[in-house]
């Protein structure tokens, strides 16, 4: 049975995390859970000498899984959570050229005090840590991880003396990893074709791969064509843009028009585009820019 306090805590964590991921427009799926009291007790009793008040503690009373559409979003999603919460530990496996194996990307964050104080189970069991676990996956690898966890990790004895099949299962993961990058390359190629045909809405949508399905305003399209700005927008570095949105705490609705105004403000510097930008959007951008620069100066002193 689940405690209402624990459910409110995981719901609060989910809201805080999703608000930040949505702010920069990432495409993702989100799963969260809290362990029941019986599940915690079962985990403790399974290895009674493993967890204690003064030693190693159970760190996954609360768990989050973030499933990204594209592999290059793993880093920005991790950076997003690192800004929100204090890192307790992380396990990020390095890939190797000659080994087929799943790579872990798991973080343990400190639970904000305002939330940990509300937990009934944390007060009741001293061997539970005031932390929560976050797993990062890509959408293609997620299904493989589910199969591997339930049918190999939990049933290790079934795989004894079957290393060839275990390697084959890892090989399937390797093919999914290749497909992850293949899909990303496909959208890069599509964005280039959109650029060559001057399809600016499609180019931005497929280059940036963010949660937006609208179309550019005709005034913006006219300026891009008349001032030959298409190549400049095409050459904007996606990772740099997303990092800027995160670091500057840019908080504007994510749509194609606003992305144009954002890119223009920080990178392109077209007076024609600036002149048609909504006053509220420009104020949010200038305020974010000034605040970031002020904080940078203060941090350097």
Please characterize this protein's 3D structure.
The protein is an alpha+beta fold. It folds into two domains: 4-156, Beta Polymerase, domain 2, CATH 3.30.460; 219-300, no CATH class. 57% of the residues lie in helices and 11% in strands. The chain contains 14 helices and five strands. The protein has a five-stranded mixed beta sheet. It is globular and about 70 Å long. The termini are far apart. The mean pLDDT is 93.
How is the largest sheet built, in terms of strand order? 1-2-5-4-3
Q: How confident is the prediction overall: mean pLDDT?
A: 93
Rg for CA atoms: 23 Å
Q: What's the shape?
A: globular
> Total helix count?
14
Total strands: 5
Low-confidence stretches: none
What is the CATH homology-level superfamily of the largest domain? Beta Polymerase, domain 2
Keywords, separated by commas or semicolons:
5 strands, RelA_SpoT, 5-stranded mixed β-sheet, RelA/SpoT domain-containing protein, single chain, alpha+beta, 301 residues, Beta Polymerase, domain 2, NT_sf
How do the helices and strands line up, and which of them pair or pack?
Layout (H helix, E strand, L loop, with lengths): L3 H20 L4 E7 L2 H10 L15 E7 L4 H12 L2 E6 L12 E6 L2 H4 L3 H5 L6 E8 H13 L11 H34 L3 H9 L9 H9 L3 H5 L3 H10 L8 H13 L2 H6 L2 H22 L1
Parallel strand pairs: 2-5
Antiparallel strand pairs: 1-2, 3-4, 4-5
Can I get a quick summary?
The protein is an alpha+beta fold. Helices cover 57% and strands 11% of the residues.
